[in-house]
Design brief:
single chain; 9 helices; 306 residues; globular; alpha/beta; 4-stranded mixed β-sheet
Protein backbone atom coordinates (compact mmCIF):
# COMPACT_ATOMS: atom_id res chain seq x y z
CA UNK A 1 0.00 0.00 0.00
CA UNK A 2 1.42 3.37 -1.05
CA UNK A 3 1.28 5.87 1.82
CA UNK A 4 4.36 7.99 1.26
CA UNK A 5 3.70 11.63 2.04
CA UNK A 6 0.21 10.97 3.38
CA UNK A 7 -0.96 12.86 6.44
CA UNK A 8 -1.37 11.31 9.88
CA UNK A 9 -4.60 11.74 11.82
CA UNK A 10 -4.55 14.11 14.78
CA UNK A 11 -7.39 12.20 16.44
CA UNK A 12 -4.93 9.98 18.26
CA UNK A 13 -4.00 9.41 21.90
CA UNK A 14 -0.59 7.79 22.27
CA UNK A 15 -0.57 6.10 25.68
CA UNK A 16 2.12 3.56 24.90
CA UNK A 17 4.52 4.83 27.57
CA UNK A 18 2.10 4.22 30.40
CA UNK A 19 -0.31 1.38 31.07
CA UNK A 20 -3.51 1.17 32.97
CA UNK A 21 -2.77 -1.47 35.57
CA UNK A 22 -5.41 -3.59 37.25
CA UNK A 23 -9.10 -3.21 36.64
CA UNK A 24 -12.09 -5.13 37.99
CA UNK A 25 -15.53 -5.81 36.56
CA UNK A 26 -15.43 -5.94 32.79
CA UNK A 27 -19.23 -5.84 32.52
CA UNK A 28 -20.26 -8.76 30.30
CA UNK A 29 -16.85 -9.27 28.78
CA UNK A 30 -17.17 -11.84 25.99
CA UNK A 31 -14.23 -11.69 23.63
CA UNK A 32 -15.24 -12.57 20.12
CA UNK A 33 -18.91 -12.35 20.89
CA UNK A 34 -18.88 -9.94 23.76
CA UNK A 35 -19.28 -6.31 24.48
CA UNK A 36 -15.88 -4.83 23.83
CA UNK A 37 -16.06 -4.73 20.06
CA UNK A 38 -12.58 -6.01 19.17
CA UNK A 39 -11.19 -7.03 15.80
CA UNK A 40 -13.56 -9.95 15.88
CA UNK A 41 -16.43 -8.04 17.47
CA UNK A 42 -17.86 -4.57 17.36
CA UNK A 43 -20.18 -3.57 20.12
CA UNK A 44 -19.66 -1.00 22.80
CA UNK A 45 -19.74 -1.66 26.51
CA UNK A 46 -22.77 -2.61 28.56
CA UNK A 47 -24.71 -4.10 25.69
CA UNK A 48 -25.58 -7.39 24.05
CA UNK A 49 -25.92 -10.74 25.76
CA UNK A 50 -22.32 -11.34 26.81
CA UNK A 51 -21.97 -14.52 24.76
CA UNK A 52 -18.77 -15.93 23.37
CA UNK A 53 -16.55 -16.44 26.43
CA UNK A 54 -15.70 -19.93 25.22
CA UNK A 55 -14.63 -18.53 21.86
CA UNK A 56 -12.39 -15.99 23.59
CA UNK A 57 -10.65 -18.82 25.44
CA UNK A 58 -10.26 -20.70 22.15
CA UNK A 59 -8.66 -17.74 20.41
CA UNK A 60 -6.36 -16.97 23.32
CA UNK A 61 -5.31 -20.61 23.27
CA UNK A 62 -4.60 -20.43 19.53
CA UNK A 63 -2.49 -17.33 20.13
CA UNK A 64 -0.45 -19.07 22.85
CA UNK A 65 -2.00 -17.15 25.75
CA UNK A 66 -3.16 -18.89 28.90
CA UNK A 67 -6.60 -17.32 29.51
CA UNK A 68 -6.34 -18.03 33.23
CA UNK A 69 -3.56 -15.47 33.47
CA UNK A 70 -6.15 -12.77 32.72
CA UNK A 71 -8.42 -13.76 35.58
CA UNK A 72 -7.91 -12.99 39.24
CA UNK A 73 -9.21 -15.14 42.07
CA UNK A 74 -12.17 -12.88 42.61
CA UNK A 75 -14.40 -14.61 40.09
CA UNK A 76 -15.97 -12.26 37.54
CA UNK A 77 -13.50 -9.40 37.71
CA UNK A 78 -10.61 -9.02 35.32
CA UNK A 79 -7.21 -7.93 36.51
CA UNK A 80 -4.07 -7.27 34.51
CA UNK A 81 -0.57 -6.80 35.83
CA UNK A 82 0.68 -3.26 36.21
CA UNK A 83 2.67 -2.29 33.15
CA UNK A 84 6.10 -0.71 32.98
CA UNK A 85 5.75 3.06 33.04
CA UNK A 86 9.30 3.31 31.63
CA UNK A 87 8.36 1.42 28.49
CA UNK A 88 9.91 2.77 25.28
CA UNK A 89 8.36 1.74 21.94
CA UNK A 90 10.59 -0.04 19.47
CA UNK A 91 11.29 1.36 16.02
CA UNK A 92 8.96 -1.26 14.56
CA UNK A 93 6.16 -0.26 16.93
CA UNK A 94 6.66 3.41 16.06
CA UNK A 95 6.43 2.46 12.39
CA UNK A 96 3.19 0.57 13.02
CA UNK A 97 1.83 3.55 15.00
CA UNK A 98 2.59 5.97 12.15
CA UNK A 99 0.93 3.56 9.73
CA UNK A 100 -2.18 3.34 11.93
CA UNK A 101 -2.39 7.13 12.07
CA UNK A 102 -2.22 7.34 8.28
CA UNK A 103 -4.93 4.72 7.86
CA UNK A 104 -7.14 6.52 10.36
CA UNK A 105 -6.61 9.75 8.41
CA UNK A 106 -7.65 7.93 5.26
CA UNK A 107 -10.86 6.70 6.89
CA UNK A 108 -11.56 10.28 7.97
CA UNK A 109 -11.22 11.48 4.38
CA UNK A 110 -13.36 8.68 2.96
CA UNK A 111 -16.18 8.71 5.48
CA UNK A 112 -16.36 12.51 5.62
CA UNK A 113 -16.97 12.46 1.87
CA UNK A 114 -19.50 9.61 2.03
CA UNK A 115 -21.44 11.23 4.88
CA UNK A 116 -21.42 14.55 3.01
CA UNK A 117 -23.01 12.82 0.03
CA UNK A 118 -25.70 11.48 2.39
CA UNK A 119 -26.34 14.97 3.77
CA UNK A 120 -24.73 14.06 7.10
CA UNK A 121 -21.68 15.16 9.07
CA UNK A 122 -19.03 12.61 9.92
CA UNK A 123 -17.56 12.76 13.43
CA UNK A 124 -14.30 10.79 13.45
CA UNK A 125 -13.39 8.39 16.26
CA UNK A 126 -10.26 8.70 18.35
CA UNK A 127 -7.51 6.11 18.05
CA UNK A 128 -5.98 5.19 21.40
CA UNK A 129 -2.59 3.49 21.12
CA UNK A 130 -1.55 1.56 24.22
CA UNK A 131 0.78 -1.14 25.43
CA UNK A 132 -0.33 -4.29 27.24
CA UNK A 133 -3.45 -2.84 28.86
CA UNK A 134 -5.48 0.36 28.94
CA UNK A 135 -8.51 1.58 30.87
CA UNK A 136 -11.47 2.41 28.64
CA UNK A 137 -15.10 3.41 29.04
CA UNK A 138 -15.88 -0.22 28.16
CA UNK A 139 -13.54 -1.81 30.68
CA UNK A 140 -9.95 -2.88 30.23
CA UNK A 141 -8.40 -3.10 26.78
CA UNK A 142 -5.88 -5.91 26.47
CA UNK A 143 -3.46 -6.74 23.68
CA UNK A 144 -4.44 -10.39 24.11
CA UNK A 145 -7.98 -9.59 22.98
CA UNK A 146 -7.07 -7.45 20.00
CA UNK A 147 -8.16 -4.06 18.66
CA UNK A 148 -11.68 -2.98 19.49
CA UNK A 149 -14.12 -0.10 19.21
CA UNK A 150 -15.81 1.22 22.34
CA UNK A 151 -19.05 3.02 21.54
CA UNK A 152 -19.22 4.59 25.01
CA UNK A 153 -16.25 6.85 24.33
CA UNK A 154 -16.13 6.49 20.51
CA UNK A 155 -12.52 5.31 20.59
CA UNK A 156 -10.65 2.55 18.81
CA UNK A 157 -8.13 0.86 21.08
CA UNK A 158 -5.05 -0.66 19.50
CA UNK A 159 -1.86 -2.27 20.76
CA UNK A 160 0.20 -2.32 17.58
CA UNK A 161 1.94 -5.53 18.69
CA UNK A 162 -1.26 -7.23 17.56
CA UNK A 163 -0.09 -6.80 13.99
CA UNK A 164 2.80 -9.16 14.71
CA UNK A 165 0.36 -11.63 16.23
CA UNK A 166 -1.74 -11.44 13.10
CA UNK A 167 1.27 -12.35 10.98
CA UNK A 168 2.79 -15.06 13.14
CA UNK A 169 -0.21 -16.68 14.80
CA UNK A 170 -3.24 -15.93 12.64
CA UNK A 171 -1.34 -16.16 9.33
CA UNK A 172 -2.84 -12.85 8.28
CA UNK A 173 0.11 -10.52 7.76
CA UNK A 174 0.58 -7.64 5.35
CA UNK A 175 0.08 -3.90 5.54
CA UNK A 176 -3.33 -3.96 3.94
CA UNK A 177 -4.44 -6.72 6.28
CA UNK A 178 -3.54 -4.40 9.14
CA UNK A 179 -5.37 -1.56 7.41
CA UNK A 180 -8.43 -3.80 7.17
CA UNK A 181 -8.34 -4.28 10.95
CA UNK A 182 -8.51 -0.52 11.53
CA UNK A 183 -11.10 0.01 8.80
CA UNK A 184 -13.30 -2.71 10.33
CA UNK A 185 -13.26 -0.95 13.70
CA UNK A 186 -14.02 2.36 12.01
CA UNK A 187 -16.91 0.52 10.38
CA UNK A 188 -18.35 -0.04 13.83
CA UNK A 189 -18.02 3.68 14.50
CA UNK A 190 -19.96 4.34 11.30
CA UNK A 191 -22.64 1.98 12.64
CA UNK A 192 -22.67 4.00 15.85
CA UNK A 193 -23.13 7.30 14.00
CA UNK A 194 -25.92 5.87 11.84
CA UNK A 195 -27.75 4.45 14.87
CA UNK A 196 -27.28 0.83 13.84
CA UNK A 197 -25.04 -0.13 16.74
CA UNK A 198 -27.37 1.08 19.50
CA UNK A 199 -30.44 -0.36 17.78
CA UNK A 200 -28.90 -3.81 17.38
CA UNK A 201 -27.51 -3.84 20.91
CA UNK A 202 -31.00 -3.11 22.24
CA UNK A 203 -32.40 -5.98 20.17
CA UNK A 204 -29.68 -8.32 21.36
CA UNK A 205 -30.31 -7.52 25.01
CA UNK A 206 -33.93 -8.60 24.56
CA UNK A 207 -33.20 -11.71 22.53
CA UNK A 208 -32.36 -15.33 23.17
CA UNK A 209 -28.71 -16.29 22.85
CA UNK A 210 -29.20 -17.81 19.38
CA UNK A 211 -30.96 -14.72 18.06
CA UNK A 212 -28.37 -12.44 19.68
CA UNK A 213 -25.61 -14.43 18.02
CA UNK A 214 -27.26 -14.05 14.60
CA UNK A 215 -27.61 -10.31 15.10
CA UNK A 216 -23.97 -10.12 16.12
CA UNK A 217 -22.94 -11.92 12.94
CA UNK A 218 -24.90 -9.45 10.81
CA UNK A 219 -23.37 -6.52 12.69
CA UNK A 220 -19.85 -7.84 12.15
CA UNK A 221 -20.39 -8.58 8.48
CA UNK A 222 -21.66 -5.06 7.92
CA UNK A 223 -18.46 -3.71 9.52
CA UNK A 224 -16.51 -5.92 7.11
CA UNK A 225 -18.58 -4.49 4.25
CA UNK A 226 -17.86 -0.94 5.40
CA UNK A 227 -14.14 -1.78 5.49
CA UNK A 228 -14.48 -2.82 1.85
CA UNK A 229 -16.30 0.41 1.02
CA UNK A 230 -13.42 2.33 2.59
CA UNK A 231 -10.89 0.38 0.48
CA UNK A 232 -12.83 1.23 -2.68
CA UNK A 233 -12.94 4.97 -1.97
CA UNK A 234 -9.39 5.07 -0.61
CA UNK A 235 -8.08 3.74 -3.89
CA UNK A 236 -10.22 6.14 -5.93
CA UNK A 237 -8.94 9.08 -3.91
CA UNK A 238 -5.27 8.18 -3.76
CA UNK A 239 -4.59 5.25 -6.13
CA UNK A 240 -2.79 3.70 -3.18
CA UNK A 241 -3.49 -0.01 -3.61
CA UNK A 242 -0.76 -2.28 -4.88
CA UNK A 243 -0.98 -5.80 -6.32
CA UNK A 244 -1.79 -8.22 -3.53
CA UNK A 245 -3.29 -5.66 -1.15
CA UNK A 246 -6.91 -6.76 -1.50
CA UNK A 247 -5.80 -10.38 -1.27
CA UNK A 248 -4.15 -9.59 2.09
CA UNK A 249 -7.38 -8.14 3.44
CA UNK A 250 -9.43 -11.04 2.08
CA UNK A 251 -7.04 -13.52 3.67
CA UNK A 252 -7.31 -11.73 7.00
CA UNK A 253 -11.11 -11.80 6.79
CA UNK A 254 -10.95 -15.53 6.08
CA UNK A 255 -8.54 -16.31 8.90
CA UNK A 256 -10.81 -14.78 11.56
CA UNK A 257 -14.03 -16.51 10.50
CA UNK A 258 -15.82 -18.31 13.35
CA UNK A 259 -15.62 -21.65 11.58
CA UNK A 260 -11.89 -21.37 10.91
CA UNK A 261 -11.08 -20.36 14.49
CA UNK A 262 -13.25 -23.10 15.94
CA UNK A 263 -11.74 -25.77 13.69
CA UNK A 264 -8.23 -24.71 14.70
CA UNK A 265 -9.06 -24.76 18.37
CA UNK A 266 -11.36 -27.74 18.80
CA UNK A 267 -11.47 -29.59 15.51
CA UNK A 268 -15.15 -28.95 14.79
CA UNK A 269 -17.57 -26.05 14.41
CA UNK A 270 -20.69 -25.00 16.31
CA UNK A 271 -22.73 -22.79 13.96
CA UNK A 272 -25.20 -21.75 16.66
CA UNK A 273 -22.34 -20.15 18.58
CA UNK A 274 -21.08 -18.07 15.66
CA UNK A 275 -20.99 -14.35 16.47
CA UNK A 276 -18.94 -12.94 13.61
CA UNK A 277 -19.62 -15.00 10.53
CA UNK A 278 -17.87 -17.75 8.65
CA UNK A 279 -14.66 -17.19 6.76
CA UNK A 280 -16.60 -17.23 3.48
CA UNK A 281 -19.11 -14.67 4.76
CA UNK A 282 -16.46 -12.29 6.02
CA UNK A 283 -14.53 -12.65 2.77
CA UNK A 284 -17.64 -12.08 0.65
CA UNK A 285 -18.95 -9.03 2.50
CA UNK A 286 -15.60 -7.27 2.54
CA UNK A 287 -15.20 -7.98 -1.16
CA UNK A 288 -18.74 -6.81 -1.92
CA UNK A 289 -18.02 -3.50 -0.18
CA UNK A 290 -14.80 -3.14 -2.13
CA UNK A 291 -16.42 -3.91 -5.49
CA UNK A 292 -19.51 -1.71 -5.09
CA UNK A 293 -18.21 1.11 -2.89
CA UNK A 294 -21.85 1.87 -2.13
CA UNK A 295 -22.88 1.99 1.52
CA UNK A 296 -26.48 1.27 0.54
CA UNK A 297 -25.50 -2.23 -0.59
CA UNK A 298 -24.44 -3.25 2.93
CA UNK A 299 -27.79 -4.11 4.53
CA UNK A 300 -26.67 -7.35 6.14
CA UNK A 301 -29.71 -7.37 8.41
CA UNK A 302 -32.13 -8.08 5.57
CA UNK A 303 -29.79 -10.21 3.48
CA UNK A 304 -30.91 -13.81 3.06
CA UNK A 305 -28.77 -15.81 2.79
CA UNK A 306 -25.76 -14.07 4.25
Amino acid sequence: MQLQGRRESQNVEDNRRSTGGGFGGFGGFGGLGGNTGNLFSGRGCGCGSGVGVIILVIVLWIMGVNPLTLLDTGGDSLSLQQGNSDYTPTAEEDSYAAFAKQILASTEDVWTDIFRQMGKTYRPPTLSLYTSAERTACGMASADVGPFYCSADEKIYLDVSFFNQMASQLHAGGDFAYAYVIAHEVGHHVQKLLGTLDRVDTQMARSTENVANELSVRLELQADFYAGVWANHENKMYQSLEPGDIEEALNAASQIGDDTLQKQAQGYVQPDSFTHGTSAQRYNWFYKGYKTGNIADGDTFNANPL
